[in-house]
Write a structure and sequence with these properties.
Shape: globular
Strand content: 15-25%
Distance between the termini: 63 Å
Low-confidence stretches: none
Helix content: 25-40%
Radius of gyration: 35 Å
Mean pLDDT: 93
Largest sheet: 6 strands, mixed
Number of strands: 33
């Protein structure tokens, strides 16, 4: 009747659970939760102080990765993680935990600024509008967030503390002996007292203010320096390495990126490389993410070696000091600061033509090659290109182990970002060096005995030979011989010799580079830094925070032709002269003075480096966070030695950006005593992606997915055949489905169930709007098991359920508990569905204890309908803080289990046995069974294999 005549069905069942009922119920309960403060998380210094019972509960701090409030709003793919954490948080509340679960907004960033550039509308206006829209969309999903704790990174009350943390980092240094950050004032005291020698010698008190600032800049954890950066003229800003694509273009906008030398702010994250690596072992993170971080940090052990050159030296780092005798040339990165120093006016006599690149002088050759290298990304420079390029700089260094004179080149396959920016080239043992040596007619010395039969005559080799197992040969010099040694022993011996001779030492190197922290943009946190007339950087006192963004007429950094590498940044803030040039009294005893403000802004990563702390204590205007509150929610405890958030859910794409940066900030704050947690996130879970089909016409343009028709296995749009491919969901791909549209048609609870039931949370899955109705029907059947659709009366009875029903119920309770605890939401829904279908199939009124348990099982997954049914069942409290059902073990275990008895692999009998039967008892029962005795027919038994309680295999 409902299929053929919906109107008649509605008349016959006026109290059916429909989309209209769902929408009304959901809005009403969302209002109730807001009014009652249902999801307010208690803090130890307030709420918990007067409630010993609640204070004794365990805690759970559950977080989603910061969302960026896009003007386009959410599609159904975005809330996947938010729904998952909400389900998990609700389950934790119902199992006796104090739960902190909220959501803020990471609202600085380039999209809003680009919109402002295009329209002239202030980025705050568009960002706040996007936040309000997103809040409305998320509210409709029934997410149980503590809204008192929400904020946006653009709130001055928030970024005041971002600036405060920056100043703590700026005014700190890393003590290698103590293995921790310490206030810079303690370093100054060491210099003043003579406890620590001033670099370069001399007295600290004899240095000028500028000289002292330069010395401290070499120690500060936040420092400004002239360094090679990724300059993007098309965006008018510099980019971090992580923001540059593999083909050397900007991740945003796809503009060319060039290497340039600019003065920028950096974070000395490299000081924490060892700790960032070591502490990964104690984190409950996916191994794939740990591996990405380990690879990005890139720890390698080796030796530093000094190569003499013109009375000075070039220092290299090598992981194979045992191959030093095979070094026949050196290579510097094109941007290495020593290149100019060792580039003579003319080519030395006897220079090979192939080394000069056809240039008349070394200076011309170097300049031309540098220009060529600047147009390539680091990834392009390290790619295995067929043609090796480089140029001789006109000078020779000396190999310290054998005194051999070796030429120095620059080549783009060597980067300043790794090691010292210089390498000793061993062409016999490295394929890139081998190809370079062949191209430039350089000698190749065999120093590792080949084990593949090629012999030691390198003129016959077609490629390099690298081995960690072969013996060292041709490696004897004055005072040291490695011949006949294995690699490990040779490395140890040569390192000892280098240290004894004072020309090198064993050392550890990292791939990780310091974090570029400047952006030439408007829409970001201003640096709380001013410069005096000598260019010395001074931190603003805390009383002057927050330093708010000023108004500007033009929001855009100055951009240039994308290919114009010979340009310099010009920031929007630099155009506001009244804001830039100020008279301030910094409280340092010097009185009011003229200063110039820093006109770069912080990167969009800054605000998300510490936001977990603000969730704890969001309205504290006196401290970063109350220590007692921080210890309660994030402090170390059993199983979490570094503390941190109990569950952090988000995409895997942030493995080496946000996650690494946030860990660094946490460790600095921990070292300085501001927090008890040395790690921000103890457990990390990466959710998959909801995908959607993209339909494209013959031109390759996306067409509206909702208007595509399927006919005989093909797809058509407006009569034209189109292609279909599974991909991302998005507005530009014309396949986005909004949460509102699903909520209007089925209700938010249906959307929640569908997204959780689509598959394992960590796996990507395709969206299918047609399949959503399956979860809607589950809720309709649940409703019918409690409510009479014709009268609206509750149909449950107070009679005790039968044993079969009790078994079905408690098995479901046991399974759902385990699945929710393990975040296996799809299988939890399957078990709820199975129980609900069982009750429907049995027929008749449902027993009240069973109905109430079923509603509580559903509550974390579909909270609105659970609240409504709970109220209809006569309760006046909310399901949110009700105890989650607990299974009775007596009903979970089956009364009997079927045991299969095989003889020589063939089934001969089936026995009904107790599930707890022992192996001895099971073997005795099997061998005594009539069918088994008959099948054996007296044959001797060689072996009996018992797998209690389900299998006995008899071998004759």
């Amino acid at each position: 009747m409902s299929e053929t005549n919906p109107a008649a069905a509605e008349t016959a069942a006026p109290h059916r659970y429909t989309a209209a009922v769902a929408v009304e119920v959901e809005a009403r309960w969302q209002d109730f939760w807001d009014a009652e403060g249902t999801y307010a998380a208690p803090n130890p210094s307030g709420d918990l102080a007067g409630d010993p019972e609640q204070a004794a509960r365990p805690k759970k701090f559950i977080m989603d990765m910061f969302p960026y409030p896009s003007g386009a709003g959410l599609h159904v793919g975005h809330p996947l993680g938010y729904i998952a954490t909400d389900v998990f948080a609700r389950y934790q509340r119902m199992t006796g935990h104090n739960v902190l679960h909220t959501l803020g907004f990471d609202a600085f960033g380039l999209p809003a600024e680009q919109h402002a550039v295009a329209t002239g509308e202030h980025p705050r206006v568009t960002t706040e509008a996007a936040i309000n829209n997103m809040k409305s969309q998320l509210r409709r999903l029934g997410l149980g967030h503590d809204k008192r704790r929400s904020f946006a990174t653009i709130d001055p009350d928030y970024y005041k503390w971002t600036q405060w943390i920056f100043l703590r980092i700026f005014n700190s240094w890393y003590d290698d002996e103590a293995k921790k950050a310490r206030p810079i004032a303690e370093l100054v005291a060491q210099f003043e007292s003579g406890e620590r020698a001033v670099p370069g010698g001399g007295s600290w008190n004899a240095l000028s203010a500028a000289e002292r600032a330069d010395v401290l800049g070499e120690y500060r954890l936040a420092y400004a320096s002239d360094a090679p950066v990724n300059w993007c003229p098309g965006l008018g800003t510099v980019l971090a390495n992580e923001e540059v694509t593999a083909d050397g273009r900007s991740e945003r906008g796809n503009f060319p990126v060039f290497k340039a030398k600019l003065r920028q702010w950096n974070m000395r994250i490299t000081a924490y490389a060892d700790r960032l690596l070591d502490d990964l072992d104690e984190l409950d993170w996916p191994e794939a993410i740990k591996l990405q971080q380990r690879n990005w940090i890139g720890r390698s052990e080796g030796a530093r070696v000094d190569f003499p050159i013109d009375g000075e030296r070039i220092t290299v780092f090598t992981t194979r000091p045992d191959t030093l005798f095979g070094a026949t040339y050196m290579v510097l990165a094109p941007e290495h600061p020593l290149v100019e120093k060792f580039t003579p006016a003319a080519w030395p006599e006897g220079t090979h033509d192939v080394w000069t690149g056809g240039h008349a002088t070394p200076a011309e050759a170097v300049a031309a090659y540098r220009a060529q290298a600047a147009s390539k990304s680091d990834v392009e420079r390290q790619a295995e290109a067929k043609d090796k390029t480089g140029v001789f700089i006109g000078s020779y260094a000396t190999n310290p182990v054998n005194g051999e004179r070796i030429p120095v080149f620059i080549a783009d396959y060597v980067l300043m970002g790794y090691g010292t920016g210089a390498i000793m080239a061993v062409p016999a043992g490295d394929q890139r060096d081998f190809e370079f040596a062949r191209a430039f007619e350089l000698p190749i010395h065999c120093i590792v005995e080949p084990t593949d039969g090629r012999g030691t005559d390198t003129s016959t080799w077609e490629d390099a030979f690298a081995s960690y197992d072969a013996k060292i040969v041709n490696s004897t010099g004055e005072g040291v011989s490695l011949d006949g040694l294995g690699v490990a022993e040779a490395k140890e011996r040569i390192t000892e010799w280098l240290e004894r001779e004072g020309i090198g030492e064993g050392t550890v190197n990292f791939r990780l580079r310091d974090w570029l922290f400047s952006r030439q943009r408007y829409w970001g946190e201003p640096f709380p830094i001013v410069y005096d007339e000598d260019g010395i950087a001074h931190s603003l006192p805390e009383s002057m925070l927050p330093l708010e963004l000023p108004e500007v007429e033009d929001y855009s950094p100055r951009t240039f032709e994308p290919d114009d590498a010979d340009t310099q940044p010009e920031t929007p803030l630099s155009r506001n002269e009244d804001w830039v040039n100020v008279t301030l009294d910094l409280g340092d005893g010097r009185g009011p003075r003229r200063y110039r403000r820093e006109t770069n802004t912080m990167p969009n990563w800054a605000g998300s480096c510490w936001y977990e702390l603000r969730y704890l204590d969001p309205h504290n205007s006196e401290k970063l966070v109350d220590p007692e509150i921080e210890r309660y929610w994030m402090g170390p405890r059993e199983g979490q030695p570094h503390g941190g958030v109990d569950l952090y859910v988000g995409g895997a794409e942030h493995a080496v950006l946000h996650l690494l940066y946030a860990r660094f900030w946490s460790k600095v704050l921990f070292d300085l005593g501001h927090v008890s947690s040395a790690e921000p996130f103890h457990k990390l879970f990466n959710q998959g992606m909801i995908q959607a089909f993209v339909y494209r016409d013959s031109r390759g343009f996306a067409v509206p997915a909702a208007e595509v028709e399927e006919r005989d296995g093909a797809f058509y749009y407006e009569g034209e055949k189109v292609s279909r491919l599974l991909g991302k969901m998005g507005k530009s791909l014309k396949n986005a489905v909004t949460p509102e549209s699903i909520c209007e048609e089925y209700g938010a609870d249906t959307l929640r169930l569908y997204e959780m039931a689509m598959g394992p949370l960590d796996v990507s899955r395709p969206w299918d709007t047609r399949a959503v109705v399956g979860q809607f029907r589950l809720l309709q059947r649940l409703w019918r098991n409690v409510v009479d659709e014709a009268t609206g009366e509750v149909t449950v009875v107070d009679a005790e359920p039968g044993e079969d029903t009790l078994r079905a119920l408690h098995k479901a309770i046991d399974g759902v508990r385990q699945d929710l605890e393990g975040m296996r939401f799809n299988t939890a829904i399957a078990k709820v569905t199975e129980l609900n279908n069982y009750l429907t199939k049995v027929g008749g009124p449902v027993s009240r204890p069973v109905a109430e348990a079923l509603v509580l099982l559903v509550a974390p997954l579909a909270p609105h309908i659970a609240e409504e049914l709970w109220r209809k069942l006569g309760h006046t409290d909310s399901v949110v803080h009700r105890d989650f059902p607990v299974a009775d073990p007596a009903y979970v275990v089956d009364e009997a289990v079927t045991c299969v008895v095989q003889i020589k692999g063939k089934v001969k009998a089936r026995l009904e046995v107790p599930p707890g039967i022992s192996e001895e008892e099971l073997e005795k029962a099997a061998l005594g069974d009539e069918k088994v005795v008959a099948a054996l027919a007296g044959a001797p038994i060689r072996k009996v294999i018992v797998r209690a309680p389900k299998l006995v295999n008899i071998v004759t």
